[in-house]
Amino acid sequence: MATLxxxxxxxxxxxxxxxxxxxxxxxxEDSAWYTSMLAAIPSGLFxxxxxxxxxxxxxxxxxxxxxxxxxxxxxxxxINPFDEAANATAAGKITELIVNLGVPGVPAFNMxxxxxxxxxxxxxxxxxxxxxxxxxxxxxxxxxxxxxxxLFVGDVEGAGTFGDFMGGPTQLDRDSSSPYAExxxxxxxxxxxxxxxxxxxxxxxGASQLKNQTGTGRAITxxxxxxxxxxxxxxxxxxxQDIDQFLINNARRGDxxxxxxxxxxxxxxxxxxxxxxxxxxxxVAGNKIAEPKIQNQxxxxxxxxxxxxxGKGGRMMPxxxxxxxxxIDPKTGFAFKNGAPDGSLxxxxxxxxxxxxxxxxxxxxxxxxxxxxFTGKTNMKVSIEPMDPAKVKALGKKFIKEYKATAPQxxxxxxxxxxGRGKFA
Length: 425
Prior knowledge:
Blueprint: H1 4-11, H2 33-61, H3 68-79, H4 83-86, H5 90-113, H6 115-124, H7 131-152, H8 156-159, H9 162-166, H10 179-212, H11 223-233, H12 243-284, H13 291-306, E1 318-326, E2 357-361, E3 368-372, E4 374-384, H14 389-401, H15 407-421
Antiparallel strand pairs: 1-4, 2-3
């Protein structure tokens, strides 16, 4: 078969080693791996047609030895321009075999097992396929895949079997060229295809089971489910924890992390502003006072302001107030809240007080009814009283007049301290 270079040379009237008008060939034995893989895709499709046609010719040869199968193989060798390049590298050979077996094999598995359709149907009805049902369907699909492999494989001896390496009943007969040996080799190849497809399907089912071991709150039953649960404990994010406990711990950890982030932000803001003010003050004072000393003094004064209040020694005090308990919004599953995107009060400004009632659809009739926003019960709300206003005013003046801070700097400091004080509640 002529190479691509020889084909164009001959077409253009140049010198060519193949003067006999050979068939066009995509690439050569020296093709790069990526060229070989690209050629393997269409070559694998040729192999599908070659496989089923060769099998038909072999069946005809059973009665009369006329070498029809060999003639078919020679015919496809001539019309397949990608064969030489596809077989030039290991990557090309593997790709060709995957296309040859996968294109007919995957649809055969899906149609015979009906697994995807059955799973979707069960999910729509709120159910799940049992492990045994999945195994039964995978078995049917594997059998169909094995039959497909036996029918469509283009070159059984070229593809080989595991029996060729390990011995056993699936070892191919390479010594005989009879039609009986050819058909028997295809049966051996298809038999391994059944096992291989079953293995892949079983691994997929196991992975799916591991993924679905999410802890529904029900006791895990069945030896297989318990085995998969034991394995999944070591590879899933929640480990051995129950899913509800995992979610609770995650929410608690999220709250702690949010508070830590806010504390770090407050610290950085206060340190940054006081450092700038201390640097400016040091320059005004002729660098007679060290910046760290001034900054430390300001930090102590801010801390005193942060903890100020009407309690003993001028310290802050908690405040206890009775507040009306808010009912649960059926749309969100949380308490009614003005402006909640998916809530019943989404059109009311968060700045406005909660209304006493809201229109919601009746869960039974679907008609609009009025629902109370408050339950009629009360809860105890704990808050922290405001900072001592006299200390706020005095420290603000001191920062501006003595430390030479700007009004925006003082506002930034006091807003940060106020925000941090609210975290004490």
